[in-house]
Specification:
By secondary structure, the chain is an alpha+beta fold. Helices cover 35% and strands 36% of the residues. The chain contains two helices and three strands; from the N terminus they run ααβββ. The chain is globular. The chain starts with a helix and ends with a strand.
């Protein structure tokens, strides 16, 4: 999973890298699973809470931005 996340991070605007890393660290550290899917126009990164299977946050990355 870390490799996929690192590839996704290369597509994130450097102005937002600290924010995205902070959200990732907070949610994965508090029981969320990071689910990364590749779409034809970018990435969809979702954070699903393991206990309730609810999605708490989603990043959608496209060619035009996040």
């Amino acid at each position: 999973m870390d490799e996929k996340f690192n590839i996704f991070m290369k597509t994130v605007d450097e102005r937002f890298c600290d924010f995205v890393n902070g959200i990732n660290g907070y949610l994965t550290g508090n029981g969320c699973k990071c689910d990364i899917k590749t779409q034809k126009s970018g990435y969809v990164v979702s954070y699903v809470l393991n206990s309730s299977k609810r999605t708490l946050a989603t990043f959608v990355s496209r060619k035009t931005g996040m």
